[in-house]
Amino acid sequence: MHIVTFTRSTPDTAARLTVDADGSVSQGDAAMVVNPWDEYSLEECIAQAEDQGGTATVIAIGPEVHEEALRQALAMGVNAALRIDDPELATADSIGWATVAAAAIPRLDEVDLVIFGKEAVDVGSDQHQIQTARLLGWPFIGAVSRILELDAARGRLRVERSLEQGKQVLDCRLPAVISVLKDVNEPRYPSFMGIRRASRASIPLWTLAELAAELQKPLSRQLKLEEPPQRLAEAEMLSGTPAEQAGALIERLEKEQVL
């Protein structure tokens, strides 16, 4: 059983991001962290590989900044990590990203399952997951809250999905691509020995030429980034007793035709 997951480094969600006049984004002194949704896909990849006596591999697509996320994954317990980078990826859209992912997976040893986190928090997108599955020709199931059965011998997968209306159980054939929600597990903390091993690990770097992957012209491109317009607001403190304040507030709301 070979299970693959993808990860990336993203700005800390607590960081205050600013956009300069030239459109460049600055996060100040805030650190880069593993994409928070990927913590659950990493844990599920490792746990399922351990249960099946298989191999867990993590891939990052993009520049060197993503190596920190790969080392975090190695510290957690994945068996192998690799990064794919090329100057052409700087302008790639989600289809370009998926093209690279779909080219890399067949070059690994017989992958049975690809697990994604719900989305990437820095771009707020998950369409690359579905596009990867489509390019591979594999079934895709999103919003997975629990893997009920993973049978490599029979080539079958059964999962539970969380929907607004309740739970849904689905079967599909392997190999497959899924995305998981945070309900699926509780991510482990890296051990001290795991951190030491990860810090010394050599992470292979693949290029588009090595993958024989050719990116098409992006179908979408980013025109510019800018700060949202500032919203000016005023506050007024009402005096008097609580009853008087309530009466004054209702009178004001009626005058403004809010009520």
Category by helix and strand content? alpha/beta
Q: H/E element string?
A: EEEEEHEHEHEHEEEEHEHH
Task: State the helicity in percent bands.
Answer: 25-40%
Terminal CA distance reads 62 Å
Low-confidence stretches: none
State Rg.
23 Å
Largest sheet: 9 strands, mixed
Using the 3D structure, state the CATH architecture.
3-Layer(aba) Sandwich
How would you name the CATH homologous superfamily?
A: HUPs
Q: Number of helical segments?
A: 7
Q: Class, according to the CATH hierarchy? A: Alpha Beta
Count of domains = 1
| Total number of beta strands | 13
Secondary-structure blueprint:
Layout lengths: L1 E5 L2 E3 L6 E2 L5 E2 L5 E3 L3 H15 L2 E7 L5 H10 L3 E5 L9 H11 L8 E5 L9 H10 L3 E12 L4 E8 L2 E8 L2 E5 L11 H9 L4 E2 L1 H4 L30 H14 L4
Parallel strand pairs: 1-6, 1-8, 6-7, 7-13, 8-12, 9-12
Antiparallel strand pairs: 2-5, 3-4, 9-10, 10-11
What does this 3D model show about the protein?
This protein has 7 helices and 13 strands. Helix 2 packs across helix 5 (192-200) and helix 3 (94-104) crosses helix 4 (127-136). The mean pLDDT is 91. 28% of the residues lie in helices and 26% in strands. The protein is α/β, with parallel strands linked by helices. It has one domain (2-211): 3-Layer(aba) Sandwich (Rossmann fold). The chain has a 9-stranded mixed beta sheet with strand order 11-10-9-12-8-1-6-7-13, with helices on both faces. It has a two-stranded antiparallel ribbon with strand order 2-5. It is globular.
